[in-house]
Design a protein that fits this description.
Number of strands: 17
Structural class: alpha/beta
Order of helices and strands: EHEHEHEEEEEEEEEEHEEHEE
Strand content: 25-35%
Radius of gyration: 21 Å
Number of helices: 5
Strand order of the largest sheet: 1-2-3-4-7-10-13-14-15
Length: 256
């Protein structure tokens, strides 16, 4: 389990002349303390024209200040408003690249109305606990490279995200995606490269969904009592150790 802090900078009335100054200074001191105590991540959102609920219109400035006061804690954009009326996609990329020039960063992107976000030809690396890239809006994740020590690569929290041509080069033997239930791990496995992963699956609302595996044994090892491993048509030269309570059945589908 990992722990973090999440900031929206709520500022209820009554306000004083230095209220906004004090809330930012207090938050920076809290982030310094969280870093010393071993917290894993600090998240900062982006909201505009909201009184009391959130006074956080420039998260990149706050996170930049955090980066100069901390040593180990990870820094993350909780959301970035990607509607064109707020932020041009190029400016979004520039802001993130400036905040995190070492390439170890993670972003959760949301979009107003019918906006879409595309990530093409990038490299994402690091050990972000919640995933290296969070997609909370329709869009494209194409021809990117994901490296590092995190198991979760992409959060697919919105339908309509195309995930294809990517290389997921992480060191863990599992690769999984948090999703909204509309994604098929077999499609993701077929359209992307997973050189180090023996199993690929989706987590929906904290519950693990069906997955696709590089071997029959990998599927059995990932199963729990009561699960059924469906093996597609084909010839398999594998040694298999059956697990108690796990069923193995033939299915007229592509190999699992």
């Amino acid at each position: 389990m990992k722990f973090g802090v999440f900031y929206e900078h709520q500022l209820p009335r009554p306000w004083e002349e230095d209220s906004e100054y004090r809330i930012l200074q207090d938050a920076l001191e809290q982030v310094e303390l969280a870093d010393r105590l071993g917290f894993d991540v600090v998240w900062e959102v982006e909201h505009h024209f909201l009184e009391e609920y959130s006074h956080s219109s420039a998260p990149e400035v706050f996170l930049g200040a955090c980066s100069q006061r901390t040593k180990d804690i990870r820094l993350g954009h909780g959301i970035i408003q990607t509607a064109p009326g707020y932020n041009h996609p190029a400016r979004t990329a520039e802001r993130v690249a400036t905040d995190f020039p070492d390439g170890v960063w993670f972003v959760d992107l949301t979009s107003a109305q019918d906006g879409a976000v595309s990530f093409v030809g990038n490299t994402f690396s690091g050990s972000a606990p919640g995933g290296l890239l969070g997609m909370s809006a329709p869009g494209e994740v194409i021809n990117n490279t994901f490296t590092g020590t995190t198991s979760v690569d992409v959060g697919l929290n919105e339908a309509g995200v195309t995930v294809t041509g990517n290389t997921f080069n992480n060191t863990p033997s599992q690769a999984y995606f948090s999703g909204n239930g509309s994604y098929d791990p077999k499609t993701i496995e077929a359209n992307n490269s997973f050189p180090n992963q023996g199993e690929i699956y989706i987590i929906q609302n904290g519950i693990r969904q069906d997955g696709v595996y590089s071997s029959i044994q990998a599927a059995i090892d990932a199963a729990i009592p009561g699960d059924t491993v469906f093996v597609g048509n084909g010839t398999y030269n594998q040694n298999v150790a059956l697990a108690n309570g796990v069923n193995v059945d033939a299915a007229a589908e592509d190999p699992a």
